[in-house]
């Protein structure tokens, strides 16, 4: 491997991918450098942190603009390090971690057949992600079209829905996918959160005055106030709240609940419209279904508000007992078959 010569400009940054090495040049002659230090004992590999004092070697390289003892590196250590870097980012240049100099990497030339295969392989790798994204997009689109068509048949009726699908299929191919999109976006409107905040604003329970210092801050050991529980619910929203952002393992449950709730709205709207508004359903089917949907959203939202308030009050009034025989026996009498983390209390 060649080294930087003193006459080269400092701004030299390039990579030799297919440079033909000098024919007949042995490995030992390639490793003899003209940039020897004043004392060979000062050389230390910045990767394995060993020098000639530990184990004399001949594969020393000076591949960058670094100075001092850290400018030296073993060829085998550097080769392994370059392989690790290129496994993560094969198309990016490999540079020194200190001076950011791009290494001059000399690759043996490829024959024409091997070069064609390498180009085909790289082109295939670049094309496959686009093809996969196209397949996923087409799958989502046709799934949305199918759901929109089924929703139209359910709401408008089979005969009316089929007539609409046959009259203008092009327009319906554009409008039908918007049905699940609108239903999912409607879950972003959290009107029940506004109702919960209004209820808690009128039922505030702050820290007792005797537990507050002169600056207005709670004393150590003071009971938790409403501000703490508000921040807790803001950081950990309810299970049905569809929050934007990355869907980690902890968000899968609430995302799936919101997804199923949104897509099941038309079905519940038709059922409630036929059941609760049967008289109106015969005269004005669309109005009855609309009222059924509003009833479903209102009932589910009020149930969610009630459950959140009940859980909130339980958290506010919970307490922890000392682990004493009397408390343990009283706990066992109240919950004789309870267990914690799969282990029964003794």
Largest sheet: 2 strands, antiparallel
Uncertain parts: 1-39, 241-248, 338-346
Q: List the secondary-structure elements in sequence, H or E.
A: HEEHHHHHHHHHHHHEE
Mean pLDDT: 76
- First and last CA, distance: 72 Å
Task: Supply the number of structural domains.
Answer: 3
InterPro entries: Znf_RING-CH, Znf_RING/FYVE/PHD
Domain RING-CH-type: 37-106
Membrane topology: Multi-pass membrane protein
Protein name: E3 ubiquitin-protein ligase MARCHF5
Walk me through what this model shows.
Helices cover 53% and strands 2% of the residues. With 346 residues, the chain is mainly α. The chain has three domains: 109 residues, no CATH class; 77 residues, no CATH class; 157 residues, no CATH class. Strand 3 and strand 4 form a beta hairpin. The N terminus and C terminus are likely disordered. This is E3 ubiquitin-protein ligase MARCHF5. One of its GO terms (cellular component) is membrane. GO terms for molecular function: zinc ion binding.
Q: Which descriptors apply to this entry?
A:
single chain, transmembrane, two-stranded antiparallel ribbon, disordered N terminus, 346 residues, mainly alpha, 2% strand, Znf_RING/FYVE/PHD
What layout of secondary structure does this protein have?
Blueprint: H1 27-30, E1 60-61, E2 73-74, H2 75-88, H3 112-156, H4 158-167, H5 169-175, H6 178-186, H7 191-201, H8 226-235, H9 252-263, H10 265-276, H11 278-283, H12 285-316, H13 325-334, E3 339-340, E4 343-344
Antiparallel strand pairs: 1-2, 3-4
Helix pairs in contact: 3-4, 3-6, 6-9, 7-12, 10-12
């Amino acid at each position: 491997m060649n080294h930087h010569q003193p006459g080269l400009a400092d701004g030299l940054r390039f990579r030799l991918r297919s440079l033909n090495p000098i024919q007949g040049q042995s490995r030992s002659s390639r490793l003899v450098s003209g940039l020897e230090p004043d004392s060979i004992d000062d050389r230390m590999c910045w990767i394995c942190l060993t020098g000639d004092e530990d184990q004399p070697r001949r594969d020393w390289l000076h591949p960058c603009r670094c100075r001092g003892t850290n400018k030296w590196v073993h060829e085998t250590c550097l080769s392994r390090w370059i392989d690790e870097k290129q496994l993560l980012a094969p198309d990016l240049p490999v540079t020194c971690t200190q001076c950011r100099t791009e290494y001059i990497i000399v690759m043996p030339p490829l024959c024409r057949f091997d070069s064609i295969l390498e180009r085909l392989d790289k082109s295939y790798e670049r094309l496959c992600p686009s093809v996969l994204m196209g397949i996923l997009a087409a799958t989502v689109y046709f799934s949305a079209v199918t759901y929109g068509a089924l929703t139209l048949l359910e709401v408008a009726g089979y005969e009316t829905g089929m007539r609409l699908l046959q009259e203008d299929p092009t327009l319906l191919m554009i409008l039908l996918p918007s049905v699940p999109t609108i239903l999912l976006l409607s879950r972003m409107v959290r009107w029940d959160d506004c109702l919960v905040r209004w209820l808690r604003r009128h039922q505030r329970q702050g820290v007792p005055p005797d537990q507050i210092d002169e600056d207005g801050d709670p004393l150590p050991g003071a009971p938790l106030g409403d501000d703490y529980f508000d921040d807790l619910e803001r950081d950990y929203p309810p299970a049905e709240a569809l929050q934007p952002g990355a869907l980690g393992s902890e968000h899968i449950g609430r995302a799936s609940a919101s997804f199923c709730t949104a897509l099941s709205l038309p079905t519940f709207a038709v059922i409630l419209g036929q059941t609760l508004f049967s008289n109106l359903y015969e005269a004005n089917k669309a109005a009855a279904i609309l009222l059924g949907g509003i009833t479903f959203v209102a009932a589910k939202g009020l149930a969610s508000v009630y459950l959140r308030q009940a859980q909130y009050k339980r958290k506010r009034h919970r307490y922890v007992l000392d682990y004493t025989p009397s408390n343990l026996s009283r706990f066992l009498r109240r919950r004789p078959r309870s267990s914690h983390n799969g282990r029964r209390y003794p």
